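Handout, section 4.2: multi-component inputs.
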Amino acid sequence: MPYWLMKSEPEEFSILDLKELGAGRWDGVRNYQARNFLRQMIRGDLFFFYHSSCATPGIAGVGRIAGSAYPDPTALDPNSPYYDPKASEAKNRWSAVDVGFVEHFDAVITLPRLKQAPALAQMSLVQKGSRLSVMPVSESEWQAIQAMR
DNA sequence: GCCAACGTTGGC
DNA sequence: GCCAACGTTGGC
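Output:
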């Protein structure tokens, strides 16, 4: 079963929000590479929940993919910040997935720590200038990150 | 708030 | 198809 990492701004949607709700929809992804990864996800896949654009960027917990990707409804909603005027019911290029809560880490595994880990050097997350918000995590990377808790 | 790095748009 | 201009991401 593949592993993933997904970024969210905690002010927008945090691991605590997911914990309280128990489930949620991962939508608003507007980047083709990230979208293509969403489409590869399978129910049961686990992902690291990363907090970005905040005081302490880093991995805050774990979630689970609840089902495979489907057209992102926010692209069709004129009131959504993720509205895509080019999208229609018949032609919606964006995808969303449903997710569930698994775990909230006691402490965030901070970005500086992730950058220091030699086992994670290949990850897009730690590459300079990378903005990819959805990315695969290899088995060995997953284990290395779990060991940093 | 700043700004480097990146992806997308649109004129040509 | 090129590429300059623009808007966005995201760390700091």
